[in-house]
């Protein structure tokens, strides 16, 4: 008896997904609710659980295929364990054949069978595959520490650091030799993930639709850094989370948005939709690309609640456990490129939002204070905005309010 495994409901307005990875092979035992496949949607990766216990049957779609909600992608066969295939009967070898076999050189002990290489590669996630190619390691020679022995990024990095680089096993990515035995150059074609395709379309659509403009300012981080240093230990001891910069900037955005509500609004047709709440999309780097999970009602949260929410979203982004709801409904975005060392940028609006704040690295620079040149920890701020909705005066005033609140955090307490 077979039971079909169907694509589950993926969230509002999401009607299809891409098979990102098969977590079970045909013939493997499957427990009730055990994930058998990973689907990539426009926003997140979703695991598909088995509706029954049994044995993995036929896979009705291949990795990279697009499947609709409700479509059958596999079957689960009734039974407790997979039956081992019967070995083929060996035909008696003739004397000449036996001599030829004896004379043939034995295969190298380290060579992996083609089927093993293919299985290893097809069960790797796109992120792991990229690392394998970048570091030139043989995936068949790495012991996987993930679920069911699957390779993780950490496994590949550890192998790359502890052993000499080797050519990848799959023939599809091997470099072709040229005259003289010198390895040739190579190219690899990898299908874009659904999430990466969506990121590309949305960012290009933002450029094509919005009258986008960026304004800049810089901010002296001395006061915030002194506050963190003073209260770092007591804050973490009481709230169980570190006091970071994001809570200060989120609070500063909430303060400035009260005075300039257009930055927290959006255009819908020929109407402007204003929000009396602030849902901040926080740009987070995930294995498959940049994602922007949302901190809800950020204007009414405490510093500790903001830090806890951001820490939780960041962890789940790296683990691949964000849901569609986590990604939906932001009204303003904060992107911190400074964690990667970026000095300055022009961030792109996250539609249908109308503005995004870009944070950058902090570095000591000479500035003038009271007629004297002094060294201060400075950060460049960049705000990109939709000029159809937000005037230049409003954008500059908004960014100036954020600068003043960060340079004097007392303003965040007295709403000034």
Write the SSE topology.
Layout: E1 2-6, E2 16-22, E3 29-30, E4 35-40, E5 45-49, E6 54-59, E7 66-68, E8 72-77, H1 95-103, H2 114-122, H3 126-135, H4 153-162, H5 194-209, E9 212-220, H6 222-239, H7 245-259, E10 266-268, E11 271-273, E12 280-282, E13 284-286, E14 289-291, E15 294-295, H8 303-319, H9 324-327, E16 332-336, E17 355-359, E18 363-369, E19 372-386, H10 392-407, H11 410-414
Parallel strand pairs: 12-16, 16-17
Antiparallel strand pairs: 1-8, 2-4, 2-7, 3-6, 4-5, 6-8, 9-19, 10-11, 12-15, 13-14, 17-19, 18-19
Helix pairs in contact: 3-4, 7-8, 7-10
What does this structure look like?
This is Dihydrolipoyllysine-residue succinyltransferase component of 2-oxoglutarate dehydrogenase complex. Its EC number is 2.3.1.61. GO terms for molecular function: dihydrolipoyllysine-residue succinyltransferase activity. Belongs to the 2-oxoacid dehydrogenase family. It is a single chain. The strands form 5 sheets. Strands 9, 12, 15, 16, 17, 18 and 19 form a 7-stranded mixed β-sheet that branches. With 416 residues, the protein is α+β, with helices and mostly antiparallel strands. It has helices at 95-103, 114-122, 126-135, 153-162, 194-209, 222-239, 245-259, 303-319, 324-327, 392-407, 410-414, and strands at residues 2-6, 16-22, 29-30, 35-40, 45-49, 54-59, 66-68, 72-77, 212-220, 266-268, 271-273, 280-282, 284-286, 289-291, 294-295, 332-336, 355-359, 363-369, 372-386. It has 11 helices and 19 strands. Helix 7 (245-259) packs across helix 10. Strand 10 and strand 11 form a beta hairpin.
């Amino acid at each position: 008896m077979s039971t079909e495994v169907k694509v589950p409901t993926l969230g509002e307005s999401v009607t299809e997904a891409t098979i990102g990875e098969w977590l079970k092979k045909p013939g493997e035992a499957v427990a009730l609710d055990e994930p058998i496949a990973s689907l990539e949607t426009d926003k997140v990766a979703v695991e598909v659980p088995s509706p029954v216990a049994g044995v993995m049957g036929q896979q009705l779609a291949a990795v990279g295929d697009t499947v609709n909600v409700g479509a059958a992608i596999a079957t689960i066969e009734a039974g407790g364990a997979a039956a081992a295939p019967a070995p083929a009967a060996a035909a008696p070898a003739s004397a000449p054949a036996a001599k030829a076999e004896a004379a043939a050189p034995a295969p190298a002990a380290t060579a992996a069978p083609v089927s093993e290489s293919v299985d290893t590669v097809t069960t790797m996630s796109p992120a792991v595959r990229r690392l394998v190619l970048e570091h030139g390691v043989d995936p068949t020679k790495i012991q996987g520490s993930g679920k069911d022995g699957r390779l993780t990024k950490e496994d590949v990095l550890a192998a790359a650091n502890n052993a000499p680089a080797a050519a990848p096993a799959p023939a599809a990515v091997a470099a072709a030799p040229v005259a003289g035995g010198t390895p040739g150059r190579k190219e690899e074609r990898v299908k874009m993930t659904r999430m990466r395709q969506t990121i590309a379309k949305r960012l290009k659509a933002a450029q094509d639709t919005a009258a986008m403009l960026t304004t800049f300012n810089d901010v002296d981080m001395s006061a915030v850094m002194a506050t963190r240093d003073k209260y770092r230990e007591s804050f973490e001891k009481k709230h169980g989370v570190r006091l970071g910069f994001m809570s200060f900037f989120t609070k500063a955005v909430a303060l400035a948005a009260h005075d300039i509500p257009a930055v927290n609004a959006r255009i819908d047709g020929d109407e402007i939709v204003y929000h009396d709440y602030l849902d901040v999309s926080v740009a987070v780097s995930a294995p498959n690309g940049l994602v922007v999970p949302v901190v809800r009602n950020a204007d009414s949260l405490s510093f500790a609640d903001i830090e806890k929410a951001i820490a939780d979203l960041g962890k789940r982004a790296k683990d691949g456990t964000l849901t569609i709801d986590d990604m939906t409904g932001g009204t303003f975005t904060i992107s911190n490129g400074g964690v990667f060392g970026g000095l300055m940028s022009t961030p792109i609006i996250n539609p249908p939002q109308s503005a995004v704040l870009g944070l950058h690295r902090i570095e000591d620079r000479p500035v003038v204070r009271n007629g004297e040149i002094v060294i201060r920890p400075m950060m460049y701020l960049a705000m990109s905005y939709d000029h159809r909705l937000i005037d230049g005066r409003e954008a500059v005033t908004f960014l100036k309010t954020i600068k003043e609140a960060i340079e004097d955090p007392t303003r965040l307490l007295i709403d000034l």
